[in-house]
Specification:
mainly alpha; two-stranded antiparallel ribbon; two-stranded antiparallel sheet; 13 helices; about 0% strand
Length: about 325
């Protein structure tokens, strides 16, 4: 058992949280498609979600020179959002990040970086491409997507050879297992490859074994984490939009309630009892990890658009009000 989290905050939020759970957890609203979900999200609440690449196509930690394919993935969020809204210019600007990444693909299919990095990149790239195919810009990008598919197939083939390593190294982090699941399942969907989809299902099942139904927590390194919980919820909601699954939807609903309990009335995300992201916690690229507000907001916006839950939307509004001041 884990120790209770910020009990005073729980007492303040429990009525609203359980009202949301009673009304909205049972059956998601059925929007027309993934692109429609993104199109309906309020643009003003997406400030922290994704980035537009520079003129040279480089993004994030790659800005000082290409280091890893996964660092390009921030642009795929903006790419999907732009396509969903029919914003051709921004979508074209974001596509530069895709071209840069594949300019670094090796003859073996990787990008000169570790398997987990390639899985992260394929996960979010393939998600964006599926959104584009459902969007007003589908015909605008069709030739580019068709030209990319053999390269994606080569990358997925290389990643298949890394399958056992990923299963072993990602075994304590469900968010990584869901990245792996999307990388394979979405590649399979794009390419019409049932073998890739099957591998993706295996990673999904492995990740769901780390779900704790008693409270909705996805166990990151054996406990709950308010930042990584949102990553899990985001990945799973993307998956069920293309592969509906009632049991996973039930886990998402309960997981969202736990995430909401971590967001205070002032919009501050608590890191109390987090296993990974907290003061003195994990570091990345030499810097202590911070709560990923963009992914928390996006996960809750997906949930609001899929279910109509006003509690999730109100939480994003509080997040936006607090963190845009900083």
């Amino acid at each position: 058992m884990t120790t209770p989290r910020h009990s005073a905050l729980h007492r303040r939020l429990i009525p609203a949280i359980f009202l949301g759970a009673q009304i909205f957890a049972a059956e998601p609203v059925a929007p027309s498609n993934h692109a429609e979900i993104l199109r309906r999200m309020p643009p003003a609440l997406l400030d922290h979600s994704g980035v537009v690449p520079r003129a040279d196509g480089l993004v994030g930690y790659n800005r000082d020179g290409f280091k890893a394919s996964s660092f390009q993935r921030g642009a795929t969020v903006k790419l999907a959002l732009a396509a969903a809204r029919g914003d051709e210019k921004q979508a074209d600007d974001c596509w530069r990040a895709v071209d840069v990444a594949f300019a670094h693909q090796t003859g073996d299919g990787d990008f000169g970086d570790p398997a987990e990095s390639v899985a992260f990149w394929l996960c979010e790239l393939n998600r964006a491409l599926l959104v584009i195919e459902e969007s007003p810009l589908a015909s605008h990008f069709q030739e580019r997507i068709d030209a990319l598919k053999p390269k994606i197939a080569k990358a997925a083939q290389w990643l298949t050879g890394q399958r056992e390593r990923l299963q072993r190294e990602d075994r304590a982090a469900p968010n990584r297992l869901f990245f792996d699941a999307e990388a394979f399942r979405f590649a399979g969907l794009l390419l019409g490859d049932e073998a890739l989809e099957k591998i993706g299902r295996e990673f999904l099942e492995q990740g769901m074994k780390l779900y704790r139904p008693e409270d909705g927590v996805f166990l990151e390194h054996n406990g709950g984490d308010s930042s990584y919980q949102a990553v899990n919820l985001l990945r799973l909601q993307e998956i069920v939009l293309h592969f509906p699954d009632r049991q996973i939807d039930e886990a998402i609903a309960k997981g969202v309630q736990w995430e909401l309990s971590c967001i205070g009335p002032d919009g501050v995300v608590s890191t109390e009892s987090n296993t990974r992201v907290h003061p003195g916690g994990e570091k990345f690229m030499g810097q202590e990890k911070q709560v990923n507000i963009g992914e928390i907001a996006l996960a809750l916006l997906y949930y609001h658009e899929r279910t109509g839950d006003p509690v999730a939307l109100a939480a994003v509004e509080r997040l936006h009000a607090h963190y845009t001041k900083k």
